[in-house]
User: What shape does this take?
Amino acid sequence: MSKVYATPGVYIEEKSAFPNSAVPVATAVPAFVGYTQKASLNKKDITNVPVRISSFGEFLMYFGGAPAPKYELVNIRDLDPNRVFDVKPESGRYMLFYCMKHFFANGGSDCYIVSIGSYGQKVSKADFFGEVEVKDESGNTIDTKPIGIDTLKKELEPTLLVIPDLMALEDQQECYDVQNYMLNHCGLEMRNRIAILDIYKGYQKRSPLDTDVIKVFRNNVSSNLQWGAAYYPWVHTTITGADEVTFKCLSDGSVKTLATILGEDFPADDQSKRTEAIRAEIAKIESLFSPGGDAAAAKTLHETLLAVSPLYKSVLAVIRENLNLLPPSAAMAGIYSMVDNQIGVFQSPANVSMGSVSKPAVNINNEEQEDLNLPLSGKAINAIRTFPGKGILVWGARTLDGNSQDWRYISVRRTVIFIEQSIKYAAEPYVFAPNNASTWANVKALITNFLTNVWKAGALAGATPDDAFSVDIGLGVTMTPVDILDGFMNITVKIAVTRPAEFIVITFQQKMQQS
Assistant: This one.
């Protein structure tokens, strides 16, 4: 109703000349779940609280630094004359810190972090999803709160779900249970994100036996396949530098073993001044290993041993190689972010070089990739391969639902999510608006304008907008009189999403000589 004017004068009324527009939603905002050194923001505990960060510096500020790795050193010179020592992790690794460095090294930007515990506790399936009881001072349960993945149910911005710490679980079946929960979270509950999965023990080579890591993965991951993508193998990275690995990475019981095997290279019958000086340095290892030891002296000793003992250098190289062996999911999340920001969500995150990677843990050739890309079960695994002159490339663009013509490709699944969510938020202002022709026209114009821009960006196939999409709404078109009485406004949107050229076939044929 027009305003009633009672006082003589000049009045100005402004009317909106243009309809509402659809704002494209963010497409590359991963959510990471895992263990951190701490979880504190403004002196408040943020364990099991999704926190948005945009740099590795913020991660260090809120969640702390790297875990203190502990490796057991075993003297096997008497057992195997060709080998002097063996090194193995003393317990399960915490991978989130290293994977976050790998994420940002591959183009990652904004993301969410959910810390589910500190480095002191054992990696447990129960920490990754579910609810915990909240008790009062008397020990009475007063409420429950979500943990892990379930804390992300109220966060609408994340579009990717990544949990590299699952690879530290001792029971592989527990890992697959959580991965199925990830797929259900993405496909059944949220429907606005996909999960990037790692292969448990994906550093191992393929095997014809039933214990083959790919066979076991396919047999155990079975639900909402279009909402996930998996990558194989793991990769050797350069995330941990040589200066970050010293003799303090060894376990308490391995210090004497280190001194023993190093001393064997400098026997007591060698009375030269140089050898005596080296033996004196080796004798300092135990005293400087303790937490209260002189840090400057420990650093000096480390540098000295690097210079005089090739065996010491070999021990640290093995430890660093193990620390740098990482599952690829976090790096892939960074590649998704980089491709989305540079080109668009419609571009497949494939044929892209991986940063801070020296080599894949397993070399794959064309024949070996056939079963990964086109299995009978349809559960495609995307390969990471080395190509001469090109480096390490992501050589696969499929979801786990490889037999589906609709949702075979990651780019198609993510493009449709992007369009669905953008239109959903754009249509919300029309909730409770009159369900009549005027509203229908505004909504159709809004969606048509948005899809036209998406088509211009290259996400939709077709020479003209009419070839690329259609928007239908109206009485007798998408709604019946009963639908309107029940309060339903039905909109039908059809889109032709561009698909990757996965197989390029070039035919050569000789022709007759013309002259």
The chain has 15 helices and 19 strands. The chain has a mean pLDDT of 91.
